Amino acid sequence: MEQKSSPESVPSWIPASGHALRHTGVHFDAVRMVGVLGEQVAYEIMQFTDFQAGPIVRSWVGERNVYFLLPPRSAAAYPWPAGARLMGRDARCDAFVGVPALDGRTWPLDWRSKPTREVPYVDPGLLHELTLGVLESA
């Protein structure tokens, strides 16, 4: 299911075309999950939120990372388990996440879930809870 966004609701950190690197901790924090874990957590959060999960970026190269974009300075409040890496200023390192445009050619990145005016970020508490649930059931 494709989410629609009107031009006035597009966050300033989303490029107009292609993709761009964005410094984490400025516009958003990110939690990175690799491969199957990331896809499973993305599936669970999409189902739980009736496809209104907030921004989730997927990479189609290398380890096929999935990036869950959270409000700035929110991710460090949770003890992320192995397999989920916090990427934000609170992580004590500089990190960048590739962000695709909402439409057009953005390979090797795409949106698993786009941000909307109503849901501009993934809920960090819900993401943490669902991540733990996926890992416990594995």
What does this structure look like?
The chain is α+β, with helices and mostly antiparallel strands. It is built from 2 helices and 7 strands; from the N terminus they run ββαβββββα. It has helices at 35-48, 124-137, and strands at residues 19-23, 29-34, 56-59, 65-70, 84-87, 96-100, 109-113. The strands form 2 sheets. A 5-stranded antiparallel beta sheet has the order 5-2-4-3-7, with helices on one face. A two-stranded antiparallel sheet has the order 1-6. The longest helix is centred in the N-terminal third of the chain and has 14 residues, at 35-48.
What layout of secondary structure does this protein have?
Elements: E1 19-23, E2 29-34, H1 35-48, E3 56-59, E4 65-70, E5 84-87, E6 96-100, E7 109-113, H2 124-137
Antiparallel strand pairs: 1-6, 2-4, 2-5, 3-4, 3-7
